[in-house]
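User: Sequence in, structure out. Go.
Assistant: Echoing your sequence, followed by the structure tokens.
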Amino acid sequence: MADFTPQYLLFTLILLGAFSANHGCNQIPRKSLLSLPFTTSSPPLSWSSIDCCLWDGISCDLKGQVTHIWLPSKGLRGSISSVLGNLSRLSHLNLSNNSLSGPLPTGFFSSWNQLRVLDLNNNHLAGDISSLFSSNGWPASIQIVDISKNDFNGMIQSLFLRRAWTLTELNVSHNGFTGHIPSSLCINSPSVRLLDFSFNNHSGQIPTGLGRCSKLEVFRAGFNYYLSGQLPHDIYDATELTEISLPFSNLSGPINSDIVNLTKLTILELYYNQFSGKLPLNIGKLSKLKRLLLHMNYLTGSLPQSLTNCTNLIELNLRLNLFRGYISTLNFSSLQQLTMLDLGGNEFTGKFPASLYSCKSLKAIRLTQNRLEGQIMPEVLQLKLLQYLSLGDNKLTNLTEAIKVLSGCKSLRMVILPLNFQHEAMPSDEGIVGSFGFENLQALGLGGCQLTGTLPSWLSKLKKLEVLDLGFNRITGSIPGWFSTLPRLFYLDLSNNLISGEFPKELCDLPALVLKQIAPPVEQSNLKLPIFVSENGTLNQYNYLTFMPPAIYVGNNCLGGNVPIEIGHLLQLHVLDLSHNSFSGNIPYQISELTNLEKLDLSANKFSGEIPASLTSLHFLSWLSVANNDLNGMIPSGTQLQSFDPSAYEGNPGLCGKPLPLECANIEKHGLGNLGFHVSLVLGFITGFWGVCGPLFFNKYWRVAYFQFLDGLKGWAKITSYRIENLTKIPTHPVHSEKKYSLHQFFF
């Protein structure tokens, strides 16, 4: 052990005292920090001691000069003051994930010659970017700049970067920047590893020169719709790239075969652009790829056999391109890590690839809108993790076997099979679904299949079902009361069938649509693949099933009688479509109790009397039609009911008032004429109703001919209008505007 003499101890104490004296906070930076216009939410910052070097988020050098301000996620509010410029030794400034607002001071960087890290991401800062810099641009010491997720605007000019020789990360995403992406990035900053320009308003072409960034690993510039042109040829020289993300822009041209030089790529996202041509034949050299997302382009040809050499693939999405070929020739069995496969909206032929049954990690499969044939085979049960299966708009057969097989997939939540199984019978055997069949199923889509028969009782076993689409079939019989036993059902489409009888009172007691009896909430899990519902020429994308509007569609059937007053129980309902039936009597005023209602279609029925004045309380109503009934009296005034187009009320000669041209003062003059019209209307309706529905009920061959005629009307629009949060609207892709996604209410 060392001999600690008194002299040695005295020397040590003197040295420590000198160090402490030099380490105390300098008064100038202390005053600067105290003058910052910050407020904090609880807990407040601990900035009360004399020595500011001991404050929360503050670090100093040996001379007591502040070098670090590190205050992420502290609930800071206010603005960033020019007094920060007094901290000339500052090397790290991190104010990310707060609620700071306003512009940054002019010449923000002018006094900082040692700044290495600037992180202001996820605030509400704003202003023209050009005011941030002196004529010399960023300081030569800068290494990391993250000003993403703010409201900055202006142009990022190359001169800002001319001294940023040691820059390694630049993230300016999620702002409002315009103009070209700087062209001299890799000349000034050859060591940069991350460049993120995504979610801005950049225009022009992606500049050449990226190949000079010999250390570049991540390049993102997606969601800049006005970016155009082809990928720069020298991007394929940046061989350290692990991620290229350029989605939702206007890029075009082929995917060059030189892309296989980027052997370290793990993520390639080029979706929603205008890329064309074939995939490189040797794309399998990108063996480290984990995410290959090329959907919504114009890519053609067959899929290269080498694609299955990308054995690390987790997500493969080629949806809505122009690929073709016999899909069964691909051997998917090598893709053991694949969890999501989306090849929908192409022109593949053949049967469901048997090799997919070997991909044991698969959780989601979409092969919708191709030309696949055959049946769903029992081998699908090998996919123990499969939650999402969408095979709609193909040529599949044997629905009975499909239901029997799929009901045994214990993880399945989404089964979407519309526009298949044409003219088959709806499986009616109650035993087809066992006690534990479809035990986790949340959505079932069988629309547009022209299925015959009645609504089967095995559906009543699906206690976790939330969405059921059976529209555009040939289902007969009545609506069963057991629907009210499905505790989570909030979206029911039975439209465009041959269903008769009355609107059952039991349907007014759907637990998920009755506020006081709503079932316990289901876990808000993100769908493995989004659901698309076409609406008025627009594709609506739902990433969560519960973001779909609570709705009941029973339009275009042969229902009759009075609408039960219990309809007012459905307090959670957003869409109610009773159109084109033979409902009679008064419009029940209890509909006005559905205060969340956004679309109400009562057109083409036999409703009589006046429009209930209480409908004026439906403040969210954005679409209404009561056309072609036998209504009379004045349209309730002073509300949004006058804002609808006159066509919403046409075909009711007894109605008057805005927006109709007929004034109520003049309606009595036409009373006699109206009487004759009413008689002819009733007779005409009876004749029309039994002239159409009667033969369809009693004559099998007429039914077949009628629905073959409907088959030719796939472009017929079911207009819907509803307000729903977290709904992403995607314009119909030009190349698919006619072929893909008609305006039916089918979802895919």
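User: And one key feature?
Assistant: Residues 671-698 form the longest helix (28 residues).
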